[in-house]
Structures are given as C-alpha cells and as structure tokens.
Amino acid sequence: MRYGPRIFREHSEHPLDPLSDILSLLRPRTAVSAGLRAGGDWAIRFPGHEGVKFNAVIHGACWVSVDGAESRRIAAGDCFLLTRGRPFRMATDLSLPEVDSARIYDRASDGIATFQGGQDFFLVGGRFAFDGDHAGLLFGELPAIVHVSRASDQAAVLRWSLAQLATELAEGAPGSRLMGDHLAQIMLLQVLRLWLSGGRGSGWLAALADPRLGRALRAIHGEPARRWTLAELAAAAGMSRTSFAERFRRVVGRTPFDYLARWRMQLAADRLRRSGDSVATIGYAAGYASEGAFSAAFRRTMGCTPSAYRRGAQPEQSCG
C-alpha cells in the first residue's frame, strides 16, 4: 500500500522529485475557485484564512497588503500566493477606507463577487487547505506574499492556465467547478516552480533550485531509509565532502543528516496517522534497528512520542 508520497521506498527506477513528494505529503484537499470584479477606486479587507490563497489578476491592477508584511503592486497577468493565513487587504489605494469582504462575497454569483460595477478589475483564484500536518515544511520557506510577474519568460503555462480558469468561471459549463479546481492546482505548482527558478530564498527550496544540492536532495528522497554517508551524498552532488557539507548547511540551514532525519520523521508521522502499522514496523522501515531508537529520534524531532502523535498530539517543534 502507498502511504502519501513514496514512503521509505528502498529503490527507485526514476529520480524522485522532492517538491512532488512534499506536496503529496501535504495532500491539498480543497481548491475553491472564486473571482472578484471591481470598478473605480476601492479597498477591501479580508479575514484570516486556512491554508494558502492563490490569486491571479486578469485585468486591472491593485495593491495587496498582508498584516505584518510589506505590500505588493499586482498588475494584469501577475499571480500571487498568500502563505501565512493572515488577514490581508486588496485596494487600488491602501489609504482608502476599507469594506469588509463578507459584504461583497455574500452577494457573489457563481463564485464571482462584484463591487462598484466591476468594470475595471478582475481577479480569479482559489484557496487550498491541506489534510497533512506539515504545511509549514513547504510554506514556511516562502515569504508572506509570493509575487510572480507576468514579465517572466517562463510564465507561459501560467498565463494559459489563467485564461482557462477565467473562461471556466465565466461560462459555467458542465464540469467547470472540477476543471477550475484542477487548473488552480496546476497554477499553484507553476507559481512554486517560477519562484524556484528565480533563485530566491533559503532553506530546502533554495537547495532544490541549486543544480548540485538538488541532486543530493533527490537522492535522499529516493531512498530515505538508506544509511547514507557524507561521501555518497557529496558524490551525488558532484562535490567534495567538505564543500558539499558547507554549502548544504549554508543554504538549507542544517546539515545533510539533520535534513535526512527530519524528512524520515515527516514520512513516519504521516504513516503513523494513516496506517495501522506498528511503531516498530514504521521505525524499522525508517532505517532504525529498534523501536526504542526510532521513538527517541521521533521525540527529538517532533516533540512527542510516536504513540502520542498517533493519538492526535500535535508536534511541539517545527520540523521544516
């Protein structure tokens, strides 16, 4: 049986994709497609939200401001993710008095809200929630607002998906809701790809965008239960052991073996919640010789025992 991503798979016929592995572990379960049309000058206040919001501007422009983060100017063809779940504002001018979003969306038709005629601005997007417990593993590496500009040469797929999503929302053809949800998920992945291609940020996402460190990450994700040595991981990266260890720690913020141990625990945690396998079986599959050794490692990383986690305890530490 397959538990989420390729859990503790000993051998891989094809190089694995850490981003796909981690997205699989998160299990996006909701992609609520919606739209906003607005006219004239306006400012709208939105409440905090579960999961991640994804939006793309079809025409017009606005400012987006997340509580505790700097603002971004979003123009037609641009896309953005809101990764922290904080309240946020959208406005043509952030100094204008705000209107609560509920007043507008309570009157929405087919998922599209209209404000002040709606002739000057059109935005589409969705909200993703996750069944997995580890959303911070991915989104903790990203800023509060991830902005992808239309000017990017690599945004062709994103622009096509954007046009298709707008069509699905506008026409309401049979199956449009399902099509919209799938298109929104494609756009979420494409925004992450474009973010990676820009060489920004730090952590494992930045390492994934690094050609050499990315090879080492794919090796770890391909065989997470393997007893990797520094020499083997350095060889996968095509670097000397010293250079690899130093570069990995500088970019990711932890050693290769700390990253490996934490990824094993993420996979084990997923299996604890979603299978009936014993703690000993899961620990052995994770590469530990005894249940006691696995339990101790799990508690160090997750802040609770495997049994407590299985019963519903939340991790006390960030495992990203």
Q: Helix count? A: 13
Largest sheet: 6 strands, mixed
SS content category: alpha+beta
- Physical arrangement of strands within the biggest beta sheet: 9-1-10-3-6-11
- Share of β-strand residues: 15-25%
What gap, in angstroms, lies between the N and C termini?
26 Å
Q: Mean pLDDT, rounded to whole units?
A: 82
Residue windows where pLDDT falls under 50 for at least 5 positions: 1-15
Helix and strand run: HEEEEEEEEHEEHEHHHHHHHHHH
Describe this structure in words.
There is one protein chain. The chain is 43% helix and 19% strand. It has 13 helices and eleven strands. The strands form two sheets. A six-stranded mixed β-sheet has the order 9-1-10-3-6-11. It has a five-stranded mixed β-sheet with strand order 5-4-7-2-8. A hairpin with a 5-residue loop joins strand 4 and strand 5. The two termini are 26 Å apart. The N terminus is likely disordered.
Layout of helices and strands, plus pairs?
Layout: H1 18-26, E1 28-38, E2 43-46, E3 52-59, E4 61-66, E5 72-75, E6 79-82, E7 88-91, E8 99-100, H2 101-105, E9 112-115, E10 121-130, H3 135-139, E11 145-148, H4 156-171, H5 176-197, H6 204-209, H7 211-222, H8 230-237, H9 241-252, H10 256-274, H11 279-285, H12 291-302, H13 306-310
Parallel strand pairs: 1-9, 2-8
Antiparallel strand pairs: 1-10, 2-7, 3-6, 3-10, 4-5, 4-7, 6-11
